[in-house]
Amino acid sequence: KDDALEVHYQPRCDARTQQIIGVEALARWRDRDEGYISPSEFIPMAEECGLISAIDEWVLSTACRDVLHWYQGERPDISLAVNFSPVQFSRKDPHELVKRILGETGFPGNRLELEITESLFGPDSVGVTGSFQRICELGVEISVDDFGTAYSSLSRLKNLPLHTLKIDQSFVRDLGQDPNDETIVLTIITMAHNLNLSVVAEGVETRLQYEFVRQHGCDVVQGYLFGKPMPADEFEALL
Ligand code: C2E
Ligand code: MG
Ligand code: MG
Fold first, then answer.
1. Of 152, 175, 162, the residue nearest 223 (C-alpha)
2. Distance (Å) from CA 92 to ligand 3 centroid
3. In this structure, are strands 5-14 and 20-31 parallel, antiparallel, or unpaired?
């Protein structure tokens, strides 16, 4: 497993200054014959067959070690975001896993953010509150990934200890072309800020998309306009 799995890193920038303030770790599966296989293909399979915890754990510990290494260089302040499958929460308490990896790597909890897709924030997700709280006690922040694509319960959003909403890239894509998407993006930003959550726009590819989200108060931007996901050594060179 370890030979084929890699972690790539995509920069996240402050929407106002465009400075790199963090990085998202994204899993990559390299097949000897077929090249890179997208996580959108292998993550759902791993979730079904129960391999997902092993993958998420490996990505988390690898990313913690890589970013710690960068802290010794010019940028001791960037934060690390790692994707965490909602499936983890239905198996055992993922707080134990996070705590153990922080202990093993020495990575500071207050620089770590877990991105969890919206499917975990529906009305049935009552059991996760305690788990979220224990994760927050480690200083780790939790963000809602792909926001707007599934069915978040607003009362869950209000009551869970969350830090960030990530606007799904499908809404960002048609900014400037589809007035409905402009309204959706505006509404998400306003709602998030009123709930004291910070907002990340993902999939920002054009100047126009960037200007739109920046002017409307989005806090952080991520997308090809600022950098594609890249191997660790390339990201280090970029820093
Ligand atoms: P995500 O967390 O929402 O990640 C954003 C996806 O958008 C990434 O796809 C990234 O490469 C892509 N992207 C970034 N900027 C742009 C842009 O400007 N334009 C376009 N068109 N795409 C952009 P990727 O790497 O294929 O990952 C797909 C999904 O797989 C991720 O979506 C995440 O949900 C999941 N995933 C990736 N790594 C892991 C992991 O280690 N664990 C778990 N559980 N899920 C992961
Ligand atoms: Mg993500
Ligand atoms: Mg996303």
1. 175
2. 24
3. antiparallel
